[in-house]
Design goal:
- It contains 21 helices and no strands.
- It is mainly α.
- It has one domain.
- Helix 3 packs antiparallel against helix 5, helix 15 packs across helix 16 and helix 16 packs parallel to helix 19.
């Protein structure tokens, strides 16, 4: 198990590491100290992701299933709503991707205010997801209504001259459903569906899809009360020598992650000694140690991300934006193509899609489709950095196309597609791609252009799977119908009549056997 997690983390990090090393030796030279810091960051990210993945399997997923099933068993709507909002908020606070995003805006928006708003948004929409399964409400209907509200708020912000806030709002939805939130929410959804006797894929999926809408709405509401023109994203990088940077970053992350994981641990202990007193002692201690793995994994991961990856991405973006701005588009396409295959959660999703479709849609085909889709989205994001056009030109037609596809695609694939948006925009997007776009935008447009043209990249990565996977599901359904029609058109040829075997003639002199009468009596023979 440990080696498999390390292998997944290696697959996640090595493609990005290779690109950075090649760029540092060619188009974007970096100092030796920066390269060493990046390579050390790679080691820490790999180790941290491995520990975190082990902790998620041992603690986060079991807690999610237990909470989902126990909450549904109560049949009390008030309890279901309150617990869903509470646990959704608690698990979101611990999301590392959200912490990376909030850290870049800490100089103008209080970090914990932004995280809290996003957490409340996730909690409310997680409760809505629970009610959807209990009352059998259509996921398509809820998604259409939710995104209708999103675009109504986006239009209102645009009319008020606060369009620059939109990329941040859409990015908030993308980073929220990351490695901490997704396993927990999916496990909670499975627990709810199984207890409700609705273990089908239509009810099991869709929780992540709705949970990612809540943060977009809550952050958009924040935009009505903030002067967007004064927001300039900054870096939380600690300056100084190698050991000082990594040492201070490690101490900072120990504090921040403790604040994140602490409420989850407290909630589990309260749940254990109130709602689930009969929990086996082995399960209890496995979850406790899983929480410890999660804590230290997040501390190590965030240290490597902040002290190594973010700085390297920003430096490369600055160099390319200054000297070779037009290389950003093909580079974005290349990184987008590789980075989605580097996300471990994507491989898990592909396995689920192949299983649900009964092997009709192969996981390799799904992976290749997503790789091209995300490559296009990152390339378009870099194009926006270079040529400075509004995110409306990308987000509006993208979500409109996703909504149209949802009307015709089998509902199972719609649920999976909307869930997959959060899976595609994982930790590598937040810790490397966003700083890369930020550095390039500073070089081309200055710091004032970062909010308008660099932010929104995570939203693009999260949006693409909604389109490509629904298109794949629609294509699969059409192929199945065409195959069925071809079978109906094939003329049925009746089978040839079987020949009656000719009995051999009985010889004239052959003795006719005398039939022996059946009797129930037993003949006794005297000896």
């Amino acid at each position: 198990m440990v080696w498999s997690k390390i292998k997944e983390s290696l697959i996640s990090v090595l493609p990005i590491a290779a690109i950075v090393v090649v760029l540092s030796l060619t188009l974007a030279p970096m100092e030796g100290g920066a390269i060493i810091a990046f390579l050390v960051g790679c080691v820490l990210v790999i180790g941290g992701m491995s520990l975190f993945a082990i902790g998620a399997d041992a603690a986060m997923i079991p807690i999610g299933e237990l909470v989902g099933s126990a909450t549904t068993k109560t049949r009390n709507l008030t309890v279901i709503i309150v617990v869903s909002i509470l646990i959704g908020a608690i698990i979101t606070v611990a999301e590392p991707d959200l912490s990376v995003l909030a850290a870049g805006l800490a100089a103008h928006i209080n970090k914990w205010l932004l995280i809290s708003l996003v957490a409340v948004g996730v909690g409310i929409f997680l409760a809505l997801s629970m009610l959807r399964v209990i009352f059998g409400i259509s996921l398509r209907l809820l998604l259409l209504i939710s995104y209708g509200v999103v675009f109504a708020l986006a239009l209102a912000l645009t009319l008020l001259g606060k369009e620059a806030f939109l990329p941040l709002a859409f990015d908030s939805g993308g980073v929220t459903t990351g490695p901490m939130t997704v396993p927990f929410i999916i496990a909670m959804g499975l627990g709810v569906a199984n207890i409700g006797g609705k273990s089908g894929s239509d009810e099991s999926f869709g929780f992540v899809a709705l949970a990612s809408v809540g943060p977009i709405i809550s952050v958009m509401l924040l935009g009505f009360f903030i002067d967007v023109t004064k927001i300039v994203p900054t870096s939380e990088e600690i300056t100084g020598g190698f050991f000082r940077v990594f040492g201070l970053t490690f101490l900072d992350q120990m504090k921040d992650v403790a604040i994140s994981i602490g409420p989850i641990a407290a909630f589990f202990l309260i749940f254990r000694f109130t709602a689930n007193r009969n929990m086996p002692i082995q399960t209890f201690w496995r979850i406790v140690f899983g929480l410890l793995y999660t804590y230290f994994g997040l501390v190590i991961f965030m240290t490597g991300a902040h002290a190594g990856f973010s700085a390297a991405g920003r430096a490369i973006g600055l160099a390319l934006g200054t000297n070779y701005p037009y290389t950003l588009v093909p580079l974005g396409f290349l990184i987008g193509f590789m980075i989605v295959a580097a996300e471990p959660a994507v491989h898990v999703l592909n396995e689920q899609i192949e299983k649900i479709s009964g092997g009709t849609i192969k996981k390799n085909r799904v992976m290749l489709t997503m790789m091209f889709g995300v490559a296009i989205s990152v390339g378009l994001s870099m194009l926006r950095v270079v040529f400075n056009f509004t995110i409306w030109w990308l987000i509006l037609p993208g979500y409109a196309l996703a909504a149209i596809l949802a009307l015709f695609t089998p509902k199972t694939y719609t649920a999976i597609a909307f869930d997959s948006g959060g899976v595609a925009s994982g930790p590598m997007t937040a810790t490397f791609l966003l700083p890369l776009a930020t550095g390039a935008c500073i070089a081309i447009n200055g710091e004032q252009g970062v909010m308008r043209f660099a932010y929104g990249l995570v939203a693009m990565v999260a949006m693409t799977p909604l389109i490509v996977l629904q298109a794949l599901g629609l294509l699969s359904a059409l192929n199945a119908k065409l195959a069925a029609r071809r079978l109906q058109r094939v003329p049925v040829v009746p089978p040839a009549p079987a020949e009656t075997p000719v009995s051999a003639p009985t010889p004239v002199d052959a003795p006719v056997p005398t039939p022996v009468p059946a009797t129930d009596e037993i003949e006794v023979i005297d000896l």
